[in-house]
Design a protein that fits this description.
By secondary structure, this protein is an alpha/beta fold. The protein has twelve helices and eight strands. The protein has helices at 26-38, 58-72, 87-100, 117-130, 141-144, 150-156, 172-181, 194-199, 214-225, 229-247, 253-261, 274-292; strands spanning 10-13, 43-46, 77-81, 104-108, 135-139, 162-167, 185-188, 204-207. The relative contact order is 0.13. Belongs to the DapA family.
C-alpha cells in the first residue's frame, strides 16, 4: 500500500473566474487561489470540469496556470487539467502546462468515443510520455462513458509518472484493492467518499466544495490523522448537506460554487436561480457556524 501524497492531501478543483463580459479574469483567479491556499488547500486543480475547461481555449488554460502560479508561489501544488478526447491534443496541452509552471497533470479518460481498455491505456501512457510531469488519472465513467478497469489501472501504475488517481468511479471495493496493491495515490473526487476513501489508505481529495468550505473539509482529514476517528466522522457528516446540495441536486458544481462566490458561468451553463442560491447560502452558513463552535 502506498502512503505517499504527491500533491498533498487537500486539493481544490478551482473554478475559473470570468469578467462580466465573459473574459478570463486572471486577477480574480489569483486572489481566489491565494485565499484557498491560505485557508488550508495544499494544492489546486486548474482547468478541470469545475474550471469550465470545455469552454476555455488552450491559451486561456495556459494563462490561468501562469497567473495562479504567480499568485501562490512555488509551494502549493498546481495540477493542470489537460484531458480531451484527442490524445495528440492532450499531449500538447500537457507540454504547455509544464511550460506554464504546473506541478502535475489531471488527465481524464477520453470521452464520447468510448475506447476499449487497451486504447484507454495507450492514451494515458502516451500523455505520460509527453512531458516530465506526474499524472493524476481521472476515472469518472459517469461523465466519460468509459471506466478505467482495475486491470488497466494496474498496468498504468507501472509507469513512473502515473502516480495518482482522482477517483469518481463510485466503487470503493475496487479502489480499496488498488490502494492496497499499487503505489497509486488515490484522491477522492466525490465529497461523500472523502473520509471513507482516506480511511482505507487514500491520499486525500480533489474537491469542488472546497472552493467555498476549504477549512471544514480539511478538518475532517486533520481529525482522522490525529487519531480521533469519531470527530472525523462527525465533521464529515456536517459537510454532507452542503455537498449534496452542491453536487447532487441537479445543478453542476461550477454553477453552485459561483452562486456562492459570485461571477458568471460560460454557456452552455446558466447561473443558479435565486431560490437555489439562497438555499446554498443557508447550508454554507450552517456549516461554517457549526465549525466555529467546535
Amino acid at each position: 500500500m502506498s502512503t505517499h501524497r504527491p500533491f498533498g492531501r487537500a486539493l481544490c478543483a478551482m473554478v475559473t473566474p470570468f469578467t462580466g463580459s465573459g473574459a478570463l479574469d486572471l486577477d480574480a483567479a489569483g486572489k481566489l487561489a491565494a485565499r484557498l491556499v491560505g485557508e488550508g488547500c495544499d494544492g489546486l486543480v486548474l482547468n478541470g470540469t469545475t474550471g469550465e475547461s470545455p469552454t476555455t481555449t488552450d491559451a486561456e488554460k495556459e494563462a490561468l496556470v501562469r497567473a495562479v502560479r504567480a499568485a501562490v508561489g512555488p509551494g502549493p501544488s498546481l495540477v493542470a487539467g489537460v484531458g480531451t478526447a484527442d490524445t495528440r491534443h492532450t499531449a500538447e496541452l500537457a507540454r504547455r502546462a509544464e511550460a506554464a509552471g504546473a506541478d502535475g497533470l489531471l488527465v481524464v479518460t477520453p470521452y464520447y468515443s468510448r475506447p476499449p481498455q487497451d486504447a484507454v491505456a495507450a492514451h494515458f501512457l502516451a500523455v505520460a510520455d509527453a512531458s516530465g510531469l506526474p499524472v493524476m488519472v481521472y476515472d469518472i465513467p459517469g461523465r466519460t462513458g468509459t471506466r478505467i478497469e482495475p486491470d488497466t489501472m494496474r498496468r498504468l501504475a507501472e509507469h513512473p509518472r502515473i502516480t495518482a488517481v482522482k477517483d469518481c468511479a463510485n466503487d470503493l471495493l475496487a479502489s480499496a484493492r488498488l490502494i492496497a496493491e499499487t503505489p497509486l495515490a488515490y484522491y477522492s473526487g466525490c465529497e461523500e467518499l472523502n473520509l471513507p476513501l482516506y480511511a482505507v489508505g487514500g491520499a486525500g481529495y480533489v474537491s469542488t466544495v472546497a472552493n467555498v468550505a476549504p477549512g471544514p473539509l480539511r478538518a475532517v482529514l486533520d481529525a482522522f490523522d490525529a487519531g480521533d476517528t469519531a470527530l472525523a466522522a462527525a465533521r464529515h457528516a456536517r459537510t454532507l448537506p452542503l455537498a449534496e446540495r452542491m453536487m447532487a441536486a441537479g445543478l453542476p458544481g461550477t454553477v453552485t460554487v459561483k452562486a456562492l462566490l459570485g461571477g458568471p458561468v460560460r454557456a452552455p451553463l446558466l447561473p443558479a436561480g435565486r431560490e437555489a442560491a439562497d438555499g446554498l447560502r443557508a447550508l454554507l452558513g450552517a456549516l461554517l457556524q457549526a465549525e466555529s463552535v467546535v
